[in-house]
Amino acid sequence: EAGVAQSPRYKIIEKRQSVAFWCNPISGHATLYWYQQILGQGPKLLIQFQNNGVVDDSQLPKDRFSAERLKGVDSTLKIQPAKLEDSAVYLCASSLPASGRVNEQFFGPGTRLTVL
Amino acid sequence: QQPVQSPQAVILREGEDAVINCSSSKALYSVHWYRQKHGEAPIFLMILLKGGEQKGHDKISASFNEKKQQSSLYLTASQLSYSGTYFCGTEGAGNTGKLIFGQGTTLQVKP
Which chain A residues are Cβ-neighbours of B42 within 8 angstroms? Predict the structure, then answer.
């Protein structure tokens, strides 16, 4: 079974530029998550999708971050404009259940973003 | 609302045991444990549901005390491969799948 795919793996940009990350979850996984992991900290949930609907985006800085999952499969996360404090690893994860069950989240390799 | 993990860091010799604790100030539905090696994605270890269950896998086990809102991860007879950062992720009431991760506990196992 293929794992969660993410691209690019690394990205270096100047502040105020824009950047986009792509994630393809495990086939059949209804739930998709985007996390931000700052060096030395635990992952912080940015947004959670159930199929192509948003379940939780309470910690997404909506003035600069946006995410979509148009066909309920792959997803993109965009930052525009980027700030220095956005430097982090952006992790995508997916899990199987549509609702009402507990299940493990499978993480992708992440995209390491450096904002200069 | 972020769970608190203790200790922050542990250094062990191969074969020694370790306990990592995770405490929350809120009622929990489940606790998830992950291990992350430097530069890699977190890897799932186990989930514990409310009800005070205990789970085990090989020499790694965990318990969940629902009343105290605490979970502990037990690593026995540690191996070099156990080195990494361990995170607990807590899920509150409502079973939404949303996890809040602790700050992590770094474990280093030396030969």
Answer: 43, 91, 107
Distance CA B102, CA B69 (A): 14
DSSP string, B12-74: EETT--EEEEEE-SS-EEEEEEEEE-TTS--EEEEEEETTT-EEEETTEEEEEETTTTEEEEE
Question: Which of B41, B47, B91 is nearest residue A107 as measured by Cβ atoms?
Answer: B41
Is the bond preceding B7 in cis, omega lying within 30 degrees of 0? yes
The rounded distance, in Å, linking the Cα atoms of A97 and B17 is: 35
Tell me, what amino acid is at B39?
G
Span B38-67, pLDDT tens digits: 989 999 998 888 765 666 667 899 999 888
Q: In one letter, which amino acid is B16?
A: E
Distance CA A91, CA A41 (A): 13
The answer on pLDDT for A43 being more than 90 is yes
Mark B88-97 as b/e (b = at least 16 C-beta within 10 Å). bbbbbeebeb
Tens-digit pLDDT profile for residues B72-86: 999 999 999 999 999
Chain-chain contact of B103 with A109 (C-beta, under 8 angstroms): no
For residue B26, what are the contacts with CB-CB under 8 A and spacing of at least 6?
B1, B69, B90, B92
A86 phi and psi, to 5 degrees? Answer: -80, -5
CB contact under 8 A, A105 and B44: yes
